[in-house]
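COURSE: Structural Biology Practicum
ASSIGNMENT: Worksheet 4, Part C
STUDENT ID: 0417
INSTRUCTIONS: Below are two proteins. For each, the amino acid sequence is given first, followed by its structure token string. Answer the questions at the end about the second protein only.

PROTEIN I
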Amino acid sequence: MNAPFPGEIDRRLLNERSVSGRIGLQLQELDVPEQPLPDAGLLRSVEARLPEVSQPEVVRYFTTLSTMNFSIDTNFYPLGSCTMKYNPKVNEEMAFLPGMAGIHPNQPDETVQGALQLIWELQQDLGEITGLPAVCLGPLAGAQGEYSGLMIARAYFQDRGDANRTVALMPDSAHGTNPASAAMAGLEVVTVPSDSEGNVDVEALRGLVDERTCVFMLTLPSTLGLFEPNILEITSIVHEAGGLVYADGANLNALLGIVKLGDLGFDIAHSNLHKTFSTPHGGGGPGAGPVLVSETLAPYLPTPVVDRDGETYRFGAPDKTVGRVNGFHGSFGVLVRAYAYIRAVGAEGMREVSENAIINANYIRTALSDEFGIAADRVCMHECVLSPQAQKAKGVSALDISKRLIDYGIHPPTMYFPLIVPEALMVEPTETETKDTLDRFIAVMRQINKEIDSDPDLLHDAPHDTPNTRLDEANAARHPYLRWQPDEDLTAAD
């Protein structure tokens, strides 16, 4: 090992710290009957290269690693579309109560009545919030809820003998999961252009709907952070053509207590509890993407849903269900957190959540519009989309700006989305941030804009203060190095 520099932290991997024969744990004597090993075909041909380290080394390693985490608990995290809001710690406490954390999904219904009651009440709450009263909490993520909703639409038309409806319409600003989910559901994707204001081109939509239209998928607010002003006309056009209207309601942070999707003419929606309803969603999970539908479509919901008979709760299957979408009943821990959040905030609090999220986004929009381009120069909802084309003309990209933000302790916004906005930076401050935090973000963005003129290489080479600086992202995507290998196993490609 080379001599470290002063102030340098030991960031070696556990395998790199390994010393043959070093032990971190003493196993007790076997106190259960010894079991035979599996068939030889299931055993490793060579020993696993497990690290041999002491217990203090393990503790120090993971403690040091934890200090490198970038999270909403440590820094401002304006990742647009993802809604990285602060998660109240009381939600965590509720999820870890023994009666919540200590149950098993295969227990008989009569032994988990409290858990089933919570699920049933959460179904009711989400139905009331969205105006779509029939709810299944099974989907484990937004895309799974989205896919479930599209399967419901297909099953509905097939049941009516209208199997020819196989087209999914969606705006050109749609999230990438929309066309992917539609294709997985066996639907043909047709794109509807946006107008000059970032809204759905209503006349183009009118010309595209026909007897083959199964569903029109619309994100509300849009991926540009805008409320669709022609929403009632849009839903009417689709319904008159015999189709259904689907809401990508992954993020309801601008609608809570203000407007209901069902009242706007939507037939189906999904919502990400790990966004709007303040549950963690870092590290790839856990997640929850309930699917919500009108009463007409309730028989086609995935199974299971929780039904109530008097004071008894049980898992049930809708009459014409599209089937299961996962092995059990959803991410129960996430459901508990969402339930705790809704009960704590209440109806009035829900509206305040949306109002504050909208105010915060527009505060940033108006403060930065004189230095950074804006995708749509009008009142936005819970997120604003910057378009720094002037900075790009000076040789500094949205990627460079994002990387430089890391040096200031701010997580980058969502970059290059939506695709219809050049150099897009989608900023979502959420309702949980203070004015002080927003003012600091604004000041940092203005400082970065000055750096673009005085020293653009500061941005080209950013970040400067992280353990790993600028990566070759194209090569990393094509040749990912995902696990440790000893030096002798590495190739030039790695």
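PROTEIN II
(use this one for the questions)
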Amino acid sequence: MALSGDTVTLEMLERRVSELEFVDWLDHVSILEPPPGQGLIPFAKWPHLMDAIECFKVNRLICVLKSRQIGFSWLVAAYATWTALYHEGAVVLLFSQGELEAGELLGKCKTIHQYLPRHLQGLVVKENIKTLEFKNGSRIMAFPSTKDAGRGQTATLAIQDEADFHENADANTEALKPTLDAGGQLIQCSTVNKRVQVTLFKANYKGAPENGFATRFYGWDVRPSRDEAWYERVRAEAPTTDGMSPDLYMESAYPRNEIEALRPTRALAAFDPDVLDAMGSDIKTPVETLGVHNIYQLPSPGGRYTAGTDTSHGVSGDFSVTVVMNVVTGMVVADIMNSSLSPEELASASKKLLERYDSPIWIIEDNDWGILTIRMAESLGYPRLYHRNKDNVGWRANNQTRTIMWGDLIEAVETRVITVPSQDGLQQFHDLIRNPDKGGRIEALVGSHDDYPTAIGLAWLGRDKAWASRQAEVNIMRPGRNGSRRRDRRGRRRR
């Protein structure tokens, strides 16, 4: 072979190989289209795959939620092969759900390498069902997701394929800690496992970017040629074994969006997903944002309101939430949703917000750090704190009170008598499940939150008291027979 009239040496070829960027190298890659496909075909540079490549270039920790059959497994197999060929002494670890899947992913790497042009191939020095090793000292190793998989290995690149289905994902990721600490790259990619609501993959995806992960979502329609007719045809042919409904199958294998992919199955969802989807039309931008106060509707003269608060620790993680609700319309008219306010700061900020709405009945959960919020609200002289009994302020969560609160809220949501304008707040409703491991107890998925729905539930519990309180004041203010204002027991004129 000649180039510019000169003989091309092995050294020159190796230099030429090393200069190929991944995206250019893909021009030489062939893959096997699955049956009933066309056999060996060129790798297709679809837009979503090019987007993923750009993500690979600039991020170490990557979490990809995707539809089936969009070419992504071939992409990561190609990326693994290129990494091994182009980085001397590279160690690439492939983690799959089981032995069969591990063999299939490594098999894709072998296929890609086999059908490269000869001058782009590396010299293979070891090849078996678990390993592909090259003369440059690089190797690709495939593991099923067992407890000890990858332990003791420090990798240049680790790929967890169909990560949401890995039984030992936590142990595998822990084993990769030396890799990550040393600057290695981790790519987690998966369709969604609807049968298991709490997984490390889901937590990583939902926790981004604060947890360091860059995320991408690629739905069913990113593959060219797919349209609604294709979707309906696949849905009509969807398997229905093991309690898998066509809707559940499509949400798992071919999701339309992140919400559809990540929301709980209907069997476990605390709130009807269709109702929540419809409530998305109520989302609106606040008419005012003042510090931590979000105002969706300004106070109206003579309006009747109630308020609920769920308090966090004030150190990131859970949110501290206060909502103000119009008891006539059921609309959340204002809120505070913050992960850094201390319990005392929440009390002060909430009091200022509630004063704009004529200081309505305020129900604060008194469990955990809510006690501090209550004490501060009392010290600030808030006039209408909710008393669960004669001697105790606040709402105390237990099995009975939770059942009542969630039951009332579920009925209110599903009859559409509550309006939630906050997008982040509404998302938390999507993430609530009836945990089968805890007797159907309603709680948030791991990595998600229940603070906003809880605050709304508390506000909703106070609607009757809010109405009765205001009506009593109206009665007291009515003129007596002599035209004077009614007075309280101490003889003071009511305002």
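ANSWER KEY EXCERPT:
Q1: The domain at 2-262 is CATH 3.40.50.300 (Rossmann fold).
Q2: Residues 1-6, 8-15, 471-495 have pLDDT under 50 and may be disordered.
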